[in-house]
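Title: Request for sanity check on Mevalonate kinase prediction

Description:
We are preparing a figure and want to confirm that the structure record we downloaded matches what your pipeline produces today. Could someone re-run it with the sequence below and paste the raw structure tokens into this thread? We only need the token string, no images.
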Amino acid sequence: MIEFKISAPGKVILYGEHAVVHGKTAVAASLNLRTTLKFAELPNSEDVIKIEFPDVKLYLKFPFCVFFDYFFGNNFHYSLIKDINELHIRVKDFIDSIDHVIDKNNSDTLIERQRSSLQAFFYLLVYIAYEEHINIEETSFHVHLSTELAVNSGLGSSASFAVCLAACFLHWSRLQKGEHNTFNKDELDKISKYALNCERIMHESPSGIDNSVCTYGSIIKFKNKQLDMIPQVPDLKILLVNTNITRSTKKQVKQVAELKDLYPSIVIPILDSIDALSNHAWETLNEINQFSGSIKLDDRHTTLSCFIHMNQGLLTALNVSHPKLEMICTLAMTHSYAGKLTGAGGGGCAYILLPKDADNGSIKIFTKQLEEKGFEVTMTSLGCSGVIIED
């Protein structure tokens, strides 16, 4: 029986969030915090689909035949999967039909996340099963998915989740047809496309940057669905600081769009400035790869820090920051570090760029100050590999 493990990184937007939704440039990097999925076929005699998503406290087991009859029976037609909205409606109806398996003792927020996770799971399973011709009949299986990423904090947890699921079902299809040990470029492109369609269910109008970073890894420049990648990733370490303030990506994106409609002569120049800033940051990141001299490297790290300060100011002008995020960025400046929000803002996380020669003692003092104010702090690195099949 088939059994394997998949993992995908999270993401941090270094420059350009919100502007990227309006066709501008953003620079993002994969985050060395990963989501991991374990898949195993079960004996057919069990006739179950077993789902375990511990990060949203979701543990389900229900008859495989119920799923199969709904999506692969006579009343379901292949043409339905070509319409994202129609398939989404069918998936939601199916989840309503098995609603009794969801624990109603949880909070409304947690139940909503559980339902959203199930929608992503079944949407991708059905879509890819039809597209990639998975031999799914009478195949019981178990999926366990966990993450090192804080959920709903701007670190790409939903994209990493979707990429892992898409990669899982694609890999399953390939294994049924023969050996398959790694994803080639065409398969990565498919995974990113499948994950983007799934992201549209959860976020309505995603830019495509999250699923791209979680699929391909590295540091990328993204504009209008076109991406460029730095082949050799510079050694960049950051502190991730979680405000523990929940926020809605949909709400934040909608808020900026409304502000743009109300005051285009003010907001459009801000978005243009973010675009220019992101392009300059991209050039600087590429230059870091070309120099080994410490003085030149220090100069360019200083330039990146300057752009971080500017980007945070522009995002604040778009009213997507938060007092807690401002507190983090201000405290970073007192230690000569640069910090900004990452993701939708309104809460979630900030990142602090650490100089290459940052003193460990200074970092510890800064970290302690943040933790004393109730923030969660994680040191990590940027530019790790994208989605992979684990050994």
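Thanks, this matches our download. The longest helix spans residues 264-288.
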